[in-house]
Amino acid sequence: MPADIFWTSAFLDFEPSGFEVGVRFWADVTGYALSPRRGDSAEFATLVPPAGDDFLRVQRLRDGPSRRHLDLHVPDPGAAARVAVDLGAAISVESPHGYVVLTSPGGFTFCFVSHRASARPEPARWGEHISLVDQLCLDVRAADADAETQFWSELTGWPPTTSSISTLFPLVRPPGMPLRLMVQAVGDDRFPATAHLDLAGTDRSAETERHQVLGAAVQHVADKFTVLHDPAGAVYCITDRDPVTVW
Question: Which terminus of the chain is more exposed, N or C, with fewer CB under 10 A?
């Protein structure tokens, strides 16, 4: 049986020198407010949408490079962790605060947490177009792509579907879930797997220009998506997927 997942959220983890500029960029790009900071060193905050429940959070790391990690919201993190371990995950931390940190078979860090959320935010409007962060793409070496896709499909209960791009393996998320998950087979030998955020938008050119004004840099323009770097150096994409229908 899959874990009983009722919400997904992404953590934008920044190395210390990139934290302030990275947080401000993502608040501006999404149009979300920054919550009061929390944690022993004020290292955590939430990006709060104007309506609906939050699904993007930020963290200032003590050391190491910037990264992204996934939180899966479940009624019982311990029980969900046991399901994940049976499917090939490894537990890194069982916190006394109730969350569990794990790594997938491909080495990607994710957490089971229990705080409630249910209302997916609407896309933000920017003049004549709209956009929304709505996908976490797991970047894995090609040799691990099939196994990693199977792991996430079995863990979530979300069936895999096809893509017109042969290296992409999206999962079909339930209605109302804020983040779709997708596995991407990359052309290098990275391990552990990494992840990046994707935005869906109705005008990729206009959305890209908006991001550039806010400090992003374009890395590559493809037929259906544009790859950018945020001001803190993290890769992300703007796609042609419809932010309302989510496909």
Answer: N
